[in-house]
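By way of example, we now present a protein record of this kind:
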Amino acid sequence: MNIKSKKWLWTGIAAIVIALAVGLGIYFHNSSSQSAKPQRETHPSKITVKQFIKTIAPIAQKEQKKYHIPASIIIAQAGTESNWGRSKLAYKYNNLFGIKATSKKNRVRMYTKENINGKTVEVKQYFTVYDSWKASLKAHAELLAHGTKAKPNVFKDILNAKNYQEAAWALQKDGYATDPNYANELIYAIKKFNLDKYDK
């Protein structure tokens, strides 16, 4: 074999080695990308009301556009139910609405206050863990828009509400929460923090 042939042989081998290395690199990169679970967001436990509203308002407006649920109602619900992002369920587990877990995956057991027969009692419940506040807001909007499997139209009145006041009372009428003052609390929060500006 002459020098020229050897040179071509080594060039060919080098090309094959490089191709294999690149191919393996792409394979391992894709494998790790597919198997890597998205990292769960965490938020400061001492977030201010203003920061909380600023963070979730754009997401609430997107859900309003999609499902016709007033953004002010979404923000007020998220705020009053999560202590404006400061509850452990909210800042650590991204569950802004106290949505209960329906499966054994992605859940956490915590104490919650429920109004039973006119009395406020503390009970332990399993709650859904979300990867982000955006995912929590999306799940909440879908629940209001599509209801549950057993009752798909349970929250239909909120979708037909003409303003946030009607929407708040529709939530209470349709049994969204056990608190008899739920609608009033939402309306108070919307007025206090001028949340209806996000409905426009």
